[in-house]
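In this supplementary section we document a worked example of the pipeline. Step one takes a protein sequence of length 96 as its only input; no multiple sequence alignment statistics are reported here. Step two produces a three-dimensional model, which step three serialises into structure tokens for compact storage. The input and output of this example are shown verbatim.
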Amino acid sequence: MQIPGATKTVLEAYGEILFKAWSSAKGPYLQRIEYTCIQDLMNHAVHAPCKGLNSMAGKLKRILSAFHTQKAQAGVRTTSCCLLASGQHREKSSRA
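The serialised model returned by step three reads:
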């Protein structure tokens, strides 16, 4: 199932799967998950339309909520902040 048509339960499951993959990954696999999955989801969540009850922004944030609920776990908060900051930097660089 695709994200736009996914239910709340499915979106939460996607988030849990992504979090488990991230927390167990190492080396190049960890970097790939962080920069091609998590960072992209963050970027799209920030820029997606947020009108309506089933907005794309809301759906993406539902997936990312798996990380927010685990923010006390080692590395989650730091990684989230770094990915968000580097994503914003990457976006500014592409505009220049």
